[in-house]
Amino acid sequence: MRIPCPHCGERGNDEFVYLGAAALTRPAADAPAEAWHSYVYLRDNPAGLHSELWQHTHGCRRWLVVARDTRTHAVFSATDAAV
Amino acid sequence: MAELSAFTKVKSVAATHGSTTAMPIEPRSVVSITAWRGAAPALADAAQVTFGLTLPQPGRWIEHNGLAAIWAGPGHWWLQRDGRSELLAELAPLAPHAGLIDMSDARAVLRLSGPAARDILMGLLPLDLHPRSFTPGCAASTLAAHMGVHVRQLDDAPTYDLSCLRSYAGSLWRALELASAGPLRLPAA
Ligand SMILES: [Zn+2]
Q1: Alpha carbon of A54 to ligand 1 centroid (Å)
Q2: Quick check: is B65 in a domain?
Q3: Of A7, A12, A57, the CB nearest to B74
Q4: pTM
C-alpha cells in the first residue's frame, strides 16, 4: 500500500503511522457519558471507503487525511489534515 | 572537549568497493528551523535578506556560502554547515520567525560517493533515485532499514549525504555495507 503524500510524493506505508478515523466529532465537554464512550471507544468498521488519519512520521511528519478502501487498500486521496 | 566520532566503532572498516567511498562528515553544525504559524513568508524574507539564502521548495536543498538549507517538511528546514561553528548564534536573525534547535550533536552524517553509490542506496532506500526523478539538489526524508534518514544528492558522481540520529550511525553503516554486498572503503584520511 502506497500513500501519495501531498508534500513528499508517493511513499510506502511503512513511512506512515495510522492514527485512527478522521471523521470523529468531539462531544461537548458536558455531553453525557454515553456520548464520550462512543467518541472514545466505538468505531465503525466499514468494508469499503474509509476516511482516516495517517502521520508521515518518517517523511514530512505531517498528519494526513487519507481516503482508503479497506477491502483493497486502494488510496483515493491524501490531503494535509491542517490545511 | 574532544570531538568524538559517531562512527568510532566502524572506523576500522577499510576494505574496497571499487572507487565508491563512504565517509563520515564530521564535525558539522546542524540547526533545525521551523516557521512559527503564519510566519513562513517572513522567515523566507529574513533568510534571503540576512543570508542570501532562498529557502528551498519541497524535496529540494540549496547551498549558499557554505550554508546548506535542506527541506524537511512544510515550513521546516535543516540548516547545515561543515565544521564546528556557532551556527545557532549565527542564525539568531531568524529567531523571531521560527523555532531554532541546535541538532549538531544529535545527528550523524555519512557521505556516499562514487559510481556504485546509486545502486547501493537503491538497495537501502525505498525511493526512486534514478536521475529522471532524483538529481543533485533533491532531498528527501525516508527510512533506511527501519531507521529514519534524510538523504540529499550533491552531484552526479553521484554523491549523497545520509543524515540519521547519531546513535544509529553504526547501524546505518552496517546497513550500507549489507546494501553494497561488501565492506565499504573509507577514503584515505
Ligand atoms: Zn510527507
Answers
A1: 10
A2: yes
A3: A7
A4: 0.89
